[in-house]
Specification:
Layout: H1 9-13, E1 27-34, H2 38-49, E2 54-58, E3 73-74, H3 82-89, H4 91-102, H5 104-114, E4 126-129, H6 133-148, E5 153-156, H7 158-165, E6 173-176, E7 180-181, H8 184-197, E8 201-204, E9 208-214, E10 217-222, E11 225-234, E12 252-261, E13 277-280, E14 286-290, E15 296-301, H9 311-323, E16 332-342, E17 349-354, E18 357-361, H10 368-382, H11 403-420
Parallel strand pairs: 1-2, 1-11, 2-8, 4-13, 11-18
Antiparallel strand pairs: 3-7, 4-6, 5-6, 9-10, 10-11, 12-15, 12-16, 13-14, 14-15, 17-18
Helix pairs in contact: 2-8, 2-10, 3-4, 5-10
The protein binds flavin-adenine dinucleotide.
Flavin-adenine dinucleotide binds near residues 36, 58, 67, 339 and 365.
Length: about 425
Amino acid sequence: MSKAAPISLWDESAEEREHTQDLDGNITTDVAIVGGGFTGLSTALHAAERGVECHVLEANHIGFGGSGRNVGLVNAGLWLPPQDVRDKLGEQLGAQLIKILGEAPAYVFSLIEQHQIRCEATHNGTIHAAHSPKGLEDLARRTEEWHRLGAPVDLLSREETAEKVGSSAFYGGLLDHRAGTINPMGYVRGLARAALGAGAKISTGVTVKKLVRDGNKWIVETDQGEVTANRVVLGTNAYSDDLWPGLRRTFTMIHFFQCATAPLGERGQSILPERQGLWDTGSIMFSLRRDAFGRLIIGSMGKAIGGDRGLSRRWARRNIRRLFPDLGDVDIETAWHGQIAMTDDHLPRIHRLDEGLYTPIGYNGRGITPGTIFGKAMGELLSGGKEDELPLPMSEPISAPRGPLMSRVYDMAFTANQIIKSI
Ligand SMILES: Cc1cc2nc3c(=O)[nH]c(=O)nc-3n(C[C@H](O)[C@H](O)[C@H](O)COP(=O)(O)OP(=O)(O)OC[C@H]3O[C@@H](n4cnc5c(N)ncnc54)[C@H](O)[C@@H]3O)c2cc1C
Protein backbone atom coordinates (compact mmCIF):
# COMPACT_ATOMS: atom_id res chain seq x y z
CA MET A 1 0.00 0.00 0.00
CA SER A 2 1.43 3.39 -0.88
CA LYS A 3 1.20 5.79 2.00
CA ALA A 4 -0.81 9.01 1.89
CA ALA A 5 0.21 12.30 3.54
CA PRO A 6 1.32 12.09 7.21
CA ILE A 7 -1.62 12.12 9.61
CA SER A 8 0.25 13.90 12.44
CA LEU A 9 3.62 15.19 13.56
CA TRP A 10 4.16 11.80 15.19
CA ASP A 11 3.66 10.02 11.88
CA GLU A 12 6.71 11.87 10.56
CA SER A 13 8.87 12.01 13.68
CA ALA A 14 8.42 8.49 15.11
CA GLU A 15 11.67 6.55 15.02
CA GLU A 16 9.99 3.14 14.96
CA ARG A 17 9.60 1.81 11.46
CA GLU A 18 6.13 1.29 10.08
CA HIS A 19 4.93 -2.24 9.35
CA THR A 20 2.89 -2.64 6.16
CA GLN A 21 1.69 -5.95 4.76
CA ASP A 22 -1.11 -6.92 2.37
CA LEU A 23 -3.62 -9.64 3.21
CA ASP A 24 -2.57 -12.74 1.34
CA GLY A 25 -5.84 -14.19 -0.02
CA ASN A 26 -8.42 -16.00 2.13
CA ILE A 27 -7.12 -17.13 5.49
CA THR A 28 -8.19 -18.89 8.68
CA THR A 29 -7.14 -17.79 12.15
CA ASP A 30 -8.29 -18.29 15.71
CA VAL A 31 -8.81 -14.58 16.48
CA ALA A 32 -9.38 -11.77 13.99
CA ILE A 33 -8.67 -8.31 15.38
CA VAL A 34 -10.04 -5.28 13.56
CA GLY A 35 -8.05 -2.05 14.04
CA GLY A 36 -4.31 -1.42 14.34
CA GLY A 37 -4.26 0.97 17.31
CA PHE A 38 -3.33 0.47 20.97
CA THR A 39 -6.35 -1.76 21.65
CA GLY A 40 -6.00 -4.04 18.64
CA LEU A 41 -2.22 -4.37 18.88
CA SER A 42 -2.11 -4.85 22.65
CA THR A 43 -4.76 -7.55 22.22
CA ALA A 44 -2.61 -9.17 19.51
CA LEU A 45 0.60 -8.92 21.54
CA HIS A 46 -0.87 -10.40 24.72
CA ALA A 47 -2.89 -13.08 22.91
CA ALA A 48 0.07 -14.14 20.76
CA GLU A 49 2.37 -14.27 23.81
CA ARG A 50 -0.08 -16.77 25.27
CA GLY A 51 0.04 -18.93 22.16
CA VAL A 52 -3.20 -17.72 20.54
CA GLU A 53 -3.14 -17.47 16.75
CA CYS A 54 -4.33 -13.98 15.81
CA HIS A 55 -4.45 -11.66 12.83
CA VAL A 56 -4.86 -7.87 12.95
CA LEU A 57 -6.70 -6.22 10.04
CA GLU A 58 -6.19 -2.46 9.72
CA ALA A 59 -8.03 -0.42 7.09
CA ASN A 60 -5.32 2.21 6.70
CA HIS A 61 -1.98 1.95 8.42
CA ILE A 62 -0.78 1.25 11.96
CA GLY A 63 -1.77 4.11 14.26
CA PHE A 64 -4.13 5.71 11.72
CA GLY A 65 -6.81 6.33 14.38
CA GLY A 66 -6.44 8.13 17.70
CA SER A 67 -3.33 6.08 18.49
CA GLY A 68 -1.14 7.93 15.98
CA ARG A 69 -2.67 11.37 16.53
CA ASN A 70 -2.97 11.93 20.27
CA VAL A 71 -1.13 14.19 22.70
CA GLY A 72 0.95 11.34 24.10
CA LEU A 73 0.03 11.81 27.78
CA VAL A 74 0.44 8.45 29.49
CA ASN A 75 -2.01 9.15 32.28
CA ALA A 76 -3.02 7.23 35.38
CA GLY A 77 -6.66 6.63 36.23
CA LEU A 78 -9.59 7.93 34.23
CA TRP A 79 -10.89 11.24 33.03
CA LEU A 80 -13.14 11.38 36.11
CA PRO A 81 -11.80 11.84 39.65
CA PRO A 82 -11.51 8.44 41.43
CA GLN A 83 -14.38 9.14 43.84
CA ASP A 84 -16.72 9.83 40.89
CA VAL A 85 -15.69 6.57 39.23
CA ARG A 86 -16.68 4.70 42.41
CA ASP A 87 -19.97 6.62 42.60
CA LYS A 88 -20.84 5.55 39.06
CA LEU A 89 -19.52 1.99 39.06
CA GLY A 90 -20.08 1.05 42.68
CA GLU A 91 -17.50 0.76 45.44
CA GLN A 92 -15.91 -2.57 44.47
CA LEU A 93 -15.85 -2.28 40.68
CA GLY A 94 -14.88 1.38 40.83
CA ALA A 95 -11.99 0.70 43.21
CA GLN A 96 -10.82 -2.19 41.01
CA LEU A 97 -10.80 -0.10 37.82
CA ILE A 98 -9.06 2.83 39.53
CA LYS A 99 -6.38 0.52 40.89
CA ILE A 100 -5.78 -1.16 37.50
CA LEU A 101 -5.65 2.12 35.58
CA GLY A 102 -3.69 3.84 38.36
CA GLU A 103 -0.96 1.26 37.84
CA ALA A 104 -1.32 1.32 34.05
CA PRO A 105 1.40 3.91 33.21
CA ALA A 106 3.95 1.67 34.95
CA TYR A 107 2.79 -1.20 32.73
CA VAL A 108 3.03 0.93 29.54
CA PHE A 109 6.55 2.06 30.47
CA SER A 110 7.51 -1.54 31.28
CA LEU A 111 6.38 -2.65 27.79
CA ILE A 112 8.40 0.19 26.27
CA GLU A 113 11.43 -0.98 28.21
CA GLN A 114 10.88 -4.69 27.54
CA HIS A 115 10.48 -4.25 23.78
CA GLN A 116 12.88 -1.30 23.52
CA ILE A 117 10.19 0.78 21.84
CA ARG A 118 11.67 4.03 20.48
CA CYS A 119 8.94 6.52 21.35
CA GLU A 120 10.61 9.51 23.10
CA ALA A 121 9.35 8.18 26.44
CA THR A 122 9.66 10.49 29.44
CA HIS A 123 8.51 9.33 32.87
CA ASN A 124 8.51 12.62 34.81
CA GLY A 125 4.78 12.92 35.42
CA THR A 126 2.01 15.00 33.88
CA ILE A 127 0.49 18.25 35.15
CA HIS A 128 -3.22 18.92 35.30
CA ALA A 129 -3.17 22.71 35.48
CA ALA A 130 -5.86 24.90 37.07
CA HIS A 131 -7.21 27.49 34.65
CA SER A 132 -9.25 29.17 37.43
CA PRO A 133 -9.69 29.15 41.22
CA LYS A 134 -12.56 26.69 40.72
CA GLY A 135 -10.27 24.47 38.67
CA LEU A 136 -7.84 24.46 41.59
CA GLU A 137 -10.64 23.35 43.94
CA ASP A 138 -11.30 20.42 41.59
CA LEU A 139 -7.61 19.50 41.62
CA ALA A 140 -7.49 19.72 45.44
CA ARG A 141 -10.42 17.30 45.63
CA ARG A 142 -8.68 14.90 43.22
CA THR A 143 -5.40 15.18 45.12
CA GLU A 144 -7.06 14.43 48.45
CA GLU A 145 -8.61 11.25 47.09
CA TRP A 146 -5.43 10.09 45.31
CA HIS A 147 -3.51 10.66 48.56
CA ARG A 148 -6.08 8.56 50.43
CA LEU A 149 -5.38 5.82 47.86
CA GLY A 150 -1.63 6.20 48.39
CA ALA A 151 -0.90 7.56 44.89
CA PRO A 152 2.23 9.70 44.34
CA VAL A 153 0.62 12.99 43.32
CA ASP A 154 1.38 16.55 44.48
CA LEU A 155 -0.85 19.59 44.55
CA LEU A 156 1.38 22.39 43.26
CA SER A 157 1.03 25.99 44.36
CA ARG A 158 0.73 28.76 41.81
CA GLU A 159 4.47 29.47 42.10
CA GLU A 160 5.46 25.80 41.83
CA THR A 161 3.28 25.39 38.75
CA ALA A 162 4.82 28.50 37.18
CA GLU A 163 8.28 27.03 37.74
CA LYS A 164 7.39 23.63 36.24
CA VAL A 165 5.53 25.09 33.25
CA GLY A 166 7.52 28.25 32.61
CA SER A 167 4.27 30.25 32.62
CA SER A 168 2.43 32.16 35.35
CA ALA A 169 -0.96 31.60 33.68
CA PHE A 170 -2.16 28.88 36.05
CA TYR A 171 -3.64 28.93 39.56
CA GLY A 172 -1.90 25.70 40.57
CA GLY A 173 -1.56 22.16 39.31
CA LEU A 174 -1.75 18.47 40.09
CA LEU A 175 1.53 16.72 39.34
CA ASP A 176 1.03 12.98 38.92
CA HIS A 177 4.38 11.22 39.23
CA ARG A 178 3.02 7.94 37.82
CA ALA A 179 2.45 9.48 34.39
CA GLY A 180 4.67 10.58 31.51
CA THR A 181 4.74 11.28 27.79
CA ILE A 182 5.48 9.35 24.61
CA ASN A 183 5.50 9.80 20.88
CA PRO A 184 2.25 7.84 20.45
CA MET A 185 2.96 6.74 16.86
CA GLY A 186 6.32 5.40 18.01
CA TYR A 187 4.58 3.46 20.77
CA VAL A 188 1.85 2.00 18.55
CA ARG A 189 4.38 0.97 15.87
CA GLY A 190 6.48 -0.57 18.64
CA LEU A 191 3.46 -2.54 19.85
CA ALA A 192 3.01 -3.79 16.27
CA ARG A 193 6.66 -4.88 16.16
CA ALA A 194 6.31 -6.64 19.52
CA ALA A 195 3.08 -8.36 18.44
CA LEU A 196 4.72 -9.61 15.22
CA GLY A 197 7.66 -10.83 17.28
CA ALA A 198 5.27 -12.78 19.50
CA GLY A 199 3.80 -14.48 16.42
CA ALA A 200 0.76 -12.34 15.57
CA LYS A 201 0.02 -11.50 11.94
CA ILE A 202 -0.84 -7.95 10.86
CA SER A 203 -2.28 -6.81 7.54
CA THR A 204 -2.69 -3.15 6.65
CA GLY A 205 -4.80 -1.46 3.99
CA VAL A 206 -7.54 -4.04 4.63
CA THR A 207 -11.03 -2.74 5.36
CA VAL A 208 -13.33 -5.16 7.11
CA LYS A 209 -16.70 -4.80 5.42
CA LYS A 210 -18.92 -7.35 7.11
CA LEU A 211 -19.02 -9.86 9.97
CA VAL A 212 -21.14 -12.94 9.33
CA ARG A 213 -21.80 -15.66 11.89
CA ASP A 214 -21.50 -19.13 10.32
CA GLY A 215 -22.17 -21.88 12.87
CA ASN A 216 -19.57 -21.36 15.56
CA LYS A 217 -17.26 -19.38 13.26
CA TRP A 218 -17.07 -15.78 12.11
CA ILE A 219 -16.61 -14.98 8.45
CA VAL A 220 -14.79 -11.66 8.35
CA GLU A 221 -15.36 -10.21 4.90
CA THR A 222 -12.76 -7.67 3.81
CA ASP A 223 -12.02 -5.77 0.61
CA GLN A 224 -9.00 -8.07 0.13
CA GLY A 225 -10.47 -11.49 0.89
CA GLU A 226 -12.16 -13.50 3.63
CA VAL A 227 -10.86 -14.31 7.09
CA THR A 228 -12.46 -17.21 8.96
CA ALA A 229 -12.07 -16.88 12.74
CA ASN A 230 -13.38 -18.39 15.95
CA ARG A 231 -13.42 -15.08 17.76
CA VAL A 232 -13.28 -11.42 16.73
CA VAL A 233 -12.15 -8.32 18.63
CA LEU A 234 -13.03 -4.87 17.32
CA GLY A 235 -10.42 -2.26 18.28
CA THR A 236 -12.01 0.47 16.18
CA ASN A 237 -13.09 2.87 18.94
CA ALA A 238 -13.82 6.43 17.74
CA TYR A 239 -12.99 5.30 14.17
CA SER A 240 -15.75 2.68 14.15
CA ASP A 241 -17.62 2.69 10.87
CA ASP A 242 -20.84 0.81 10.05
CA LEU A 243 -19.15 -2.60 10.34
CA TRP A 244 -21.18 -3.50 13.42
CA PRO A 245 -24.56 -1.81 13.10
CA GLY A 246 -25.17 0.76 15.80
CA LEU A 247 -21.68 0.59 17.34
CA ARG A 248 -20.72 4.10 16.38
CA ARG A 249 -23.97 5.32 17.89
CA THR A 250 -22.92 4.15 21.35
CA PHE A 251 -20.73 7.21 21.88
CA THR A 252 -20.48 10.87 20.94
CA MET A 253 -17.56 11.56 18.63
CA ILE A 254 -15.64 14.78 19.23
CA HIS A 255 -12.50 16.15 17.61
CA PHE A 256 -9.25 17.31 19.20
CA PHE A 257 -6.58 19.22 17.25
CA GLN A 258 -2.92 20.00 17.82
CA CYS A 259 -0.38 22.39 16.35
CA ALA A 260 3.38 21.83 16.55
CA THR A 261 5.95 24.63 16.33
CA ALA A 262 9.28 24.26 14.61
CA PRO A 263 12.00 23.17 17.10
CA LEU A 264 12.53 26.13 19.45
CA GLY A 265 16.12 25.41 20.48
CA GLU A 266 17.51 27.33 23.45
CA ARG A 267 14.60 29.76 23.73
CA GLY A 268 12.16 26.92 24.47
CA GLN A 269 14.24 25.39 27.27
CA SER A 270 12.39 27.13 30.11
CA ILE A 271 9.02 25.76 28.95
CA LEU A 272 8.15 22.52 30.75
CA PRO A 273 11.87 22.05 31.52
CA GLU A 274 11.27 18.58 33.00
CA ARG A 275 9.20 17.64 29.92
CA GLN A 276 5.93 16.92 31.75
CA GLY A 277 2.86 16.98 29.50
CA LEU A 278 0.05 19.29 30.58
CA TRP A 279 -3.69 19.75 30.16
CA ASP A 280 -5.92 22.22 31.92
CA THR A 281 -9.15 22.18 33.91
CA GLY A 282 -11.12 24.29 31.41
CA SER A 283 -14.32 22.74 30.07
CA ILE A 284 -12.91 23.21 26.55
CA MET A 285 -9.54 21.99 27.71
CA PHE A 286 -6.23 22.54 26.04
CA SER A 287 -3.02 20.51 26.09
CA LEU A 288 0.64 21.47 25.97
CA ARG A 289 3.86 19.50 25.73
CA ARG A 290 7.28 19.42 24.12
CA ASP A 291 8.71 16.68 21.96
CA ALA A 292 12.25 15.30 21.99
CA PHE A 293 13.29 17.84 19.32
CA GLY A 294 12.22 20.94 21.24
CA ARG A 295 8.95 21.52 19.41
CA LEU A 296 6.10 22.94 21.45
CA ILE A 297 2.81 21.16 20.80
CA ILE A 298 -0.41 22.86 21.80
CA GLY A 299 -3.92 21.58 21.22
CA SER A 300 -7.57 21.85 22.13
CA MET A 301 -10.97 20.43 21.36
CA GLY A 302 -12.17 20.80 17.78
CA LYS A 303 -10.81 20.32 14.27
CA ALA A 304 -7.61 21.71 12.79
CA ILE A 305 -9.09 24.43 10.61
CA GLY A 306 -7.39 26.25 7.75
CA GLY A 307 -3.94 26.05 6.22
CA ASP A 308 -0.72 27.90 7.01
CA ARG A 309 -2.44 31.17 7.92
CA GLY A 310 -5.65 29.45 9.04
CA LEU A 311 -7.70 29.60 12.23
CA SER A 312 -6.05 26.82 14.24
CA ARG A 313 -2.54 28.09 13.65
CA ARG A 314 -3.69 31.57 14.66
CA TRP A 315 -5.24 30.08 17.80
CA ALA A 316 -1.97 28.29 18.57
CA ARG A 317 0.22 31.37 18.07
CA ARG A 318 -2.15 33.51 20.15
CA ASN A 319 -2.23 31.03 23.04
CA ILE A 320 1.51 30.44 23.01
CA ARG A 321 1.91 34.25 23.23
CA ARG A 322 -0.56 34.39 26.13
CA LEU A 323 1.25 31.65 28.04
CA PHE A 324 4.82 32.63 27.18
CA PRO A 325 4.86 36.37 26.43
CA ASP A 326 8.67 36.48 26.34
CA LEU A 327 9.06 33.71 23.78
CA GLY A 328 8.60 35.84 20.68
CA ASP A 329 7.10 34.69 17.37
CA VAL A 330 6.96 31.00 16.58
CA ASP A 331 6.48 29.09 13.32
CA ILE A 332 3.77 26.46 13.33
CA GLU A 333 5.06 23.49 11.33
CA THR A 334 2.13 21.11 11.44
CA ALA A 335 -1.52 20.92 12.49
CA TRP A 336 -3.74 17.86 12.67
CA HIS A 337 -6.76 16.47 14.47
CA GLY A 338 -8.28 13.17 15.49
CA GLN A 339 -11.51 11.65 16.77
CA ILE A 340 -12.37 10.84 20.38
CA ALA A 341 -15.20 8.54 21.58
CA MET A 342 -17.01 10.10 24.56
CA THR A 343 -19.51 8.04 26.52
CA ASP A 344 -22.42 9.64 28.39
CA ASP A 345 -20.95 8.82 31.82
CA HIS A 346 -17.28 9.28 30.77
CA LEU A 347 -16.54 5.64 31.55
CA PRO A 348 -15.04 3.15 29.07
CA ARG A 349 -16.79 -0.09 28.14
CA ILE A 350 -16.02 -3.66 27.15
CA HIS A 351 -18.96 -4.86 25.07
CA ARG A 352 -19.89 -8.37 24.07
CA LEU A 353 -21.58 -7.69 20.73
CA ASP A 354 -22.36 -11.33 19.98
CA GLU A 355 -21.02 -14.80 20.75
CA GLY A 356 -17.22 -14.54 20.49
CA LEU A 357 -17.31 -10.89 19.35
CA TYR A 358 -15.93 -8.25 21.72
CA THR A 359 -15.03 -4.58 21.69
CA PRO A 360 -13.31 -2.42 24.32
CA ILE A 361 -14.44 1.12 23.47
CA GLY A 362 -15.18 4.66 24.68
CA TYR A 363 -11.94 5.81 26.30
CA ASN A 364 -13.07 9.46 26.52
CA GLY A 365 -9.78 10.86 25.25
CA ARG A 366 -7.64 8.73 27.52
CA GLY A 367 -6.67 5.65 25.59
CA ILE A 368 -2.95 5.00 25.86
CA THR A 369 -3.23 3.25 29.19
CA PRO A 370 -6.79 1.82 28.87
CA GLY A 371 -6.10 0.68 25.28
CA THR A 372 -2.98 -1.16 26.44
CA ILE A 373 -4.60 -2.60 29.55
CA PHE A 374 -7.93 -3.58 27.97
CA GLY A 375 -5.99 -5.15 25.09
CA LYS A 376 -3.97 -7.15 27.62
CA ALA A 377 -7.21 -8.20 29.32
CA MET A 378 -8.63 -9.28 25.93
CA GLY A 379 -5.46 -11.30 25.27
CA GLU A 380 -5.92 -13.05 28.61
CA LEU A 381 -9.61 -13.73 27.95
CA LEU A 382 -8.88 -15.15 24.51
CA SER A 383 -6.30 -17.50 25.96
CA GLY A 384 -8.67 -19.09 28.46
CA GLY A 385 -9.11 -16.33 31.05
CA LYS A 386 -12.43 -15.71 32.74
CA GLU A 387 -14.79 -12.86 31.94
CA ASP A 388 -15.00 -11.92 35.61
CA GLU A 389 -11.26 -11.21 35.56
CA LEU A 390 -11.70 -8.33 33.08
CA PRO A 391 -11.09 -4.79 34.42
CA LEU A 392 -14.77 -4.07 33.69
CA PRO A 393 -17.72 -6.43 33.38
CA MET A 394 -18.84 -7.14 29.82
CA SER A 395 -21.78 -4.95 28.89
CA GLU A 396 -24.35 -4.74 26.13
CA PRO A 397 -24.00 -1.72 23.84
CA ILE A 398 -26.50 1.02 24.50
CA SER A 399 -27.31 3.56 21.83
CA ALA A 400 -26.68 7.25 22.56
CA PRO A 401 -29.41 8.58 20.25
CA ARG A 402 -28.31 12.19 20.59
CA GLY A 403 -24.67 11.30 19.75
CA PRO A 404 -24.59 12.49 16.11
CA LEU A 405 -26.45 15.70 16.95
CA MET A 406 -24.16 16.38 19.92
CA SER A 407 -21.08 15.78 17.71
CA ARG A 408 -22.22 18.59 15.45
CA VAL A 409 -23.10 20.87 18.37
CA TYR A 410 -19.67 20.30 19.94
CA ASP A 411 -17.90 20.93 16.63
CA MET A 412 -19.68 24.29 16.32
CA ALA A 413 -18.91 25.24 19.95
CA PHE A 414 -15.24 24.26 19.57
CA THR A 415 -14.91 26.26 16.34
CA ALA A 416 -16.48 29.30 18.04
CA ASN A 417 -14.00 28.85 20.89
CA GLN A 418 -11.09 28.83 18.42
CA ILE A 419 -12.38 31.99 16.77
CA ILE A 420 -12.85 33.82 20.08
CA LYS A 421 -9.46 32.75 21.41
CA SER A 422 -7.60 33.65 18.21
CA ILE A 423 -8.35 37.33 18.44
C1 LIG B 1 -6.14 14.35 19.24
C2 LIG B 1 -6.27 13.31 20.33
C3 LIG B 1 -5.58 13.49 21.52
C4 LIG B 1 -5.61 12.48 22.50
N1 LIG B 1 -4.77 12.58 23.58
C5 LIG B 1 -4.62 11.50 24.39
C6 LIG B 1 -3.61 11.50 25.37
O1 LIG B 1 -2.80 12.43 25.51
N2 LIG B 1 -3.51 10.42 26.19
C7 LIG B 1 -4.34 9.34 26.05
O2 LIG B 1 -4.21 8.39 26.83
N3 LIG B 1 -5.27 9.30 25.08
C8 LIG B 1 -5.43 10.34 24.24
N4 LIG B 1 -6.34 10.30 23.24
C9 LIG B 1 -7.19 9.09 23.09
C10 LIG B 1 -6.44 7.94 22.44
O3 LIG B 1 -5.67 8.38 21.35
C11 LIG B 1 -7.44 6.88 21.97
O4 LIG B 1 -8.30 6.56 23.03
C12 LIG B 1 -6.75 5.64 21.50
O5 LIG B 1 -5.84 5.93 20.48
C13 LIG B 1 -7.75 4.60 21.03
O6 LIG B 1 -7.00 3.51 20.57
P1 LIG B 1 -7.73 2.33 19.82
O7 LIG B 1 -6.70 1.34 19.43
O8 LIG B 1 -8.85 1.82 20.66
O9 LIG B 1 -8.39 2.99 18.54
P2 LIG B 1 -7.70 3.78 17.33
O10 LIG B 1 -6.29 4.10 17.60
O11 LIG B 1 -8.60 4.92 17.01
O12 LIG B 1 -7.70 2.72 16.17
C14 LIG B 1 -8.85 2.33 15.50
C15 LIG B 1 -8.40 1.77 14.16
O13 LIG B 1 -9.45 1.00 13.60
C16 LIG B 1 -9.32 1.09 12.18
N5 LIG B 1 -10.62 0.70 11.62
C17 LIG B 1 -11.83 1.25 11.82
N6 LIG B 1 -12.78 0.59 11.12
C18 LIG B 1 -12.14 -0.42 10.47
C19 LIG B 1 -12.57 -1.45 9.57
N7 LIG B 1 -13.87 -1.55 9.22
N8 LIG B 1 -11.65 -2.32 9.08
C20 LIG B 1 -10.36 -2.22 9.45
N9 LIG B 1 -9.90 -1.26 10.28
C21 LIG B 1 -10.77 -0.38 10.79
C22 LIG B 1 -8.96 2.56 11.96
O14 LIG B 1 -8.34 2.75 10.70
C23 LIG B 1 -8.03 2.83 13.13
O15 LIG B 1 -6.66 2.70 12.79
C24 LIG B 1 -6.40 11.32 22.29
C25 LIG B 1 -7.14 11.18 21.11
C26 LIG B 1 -7.07 12.15 20.13
C27 LIG B 1 -7.82 11.94 18.85
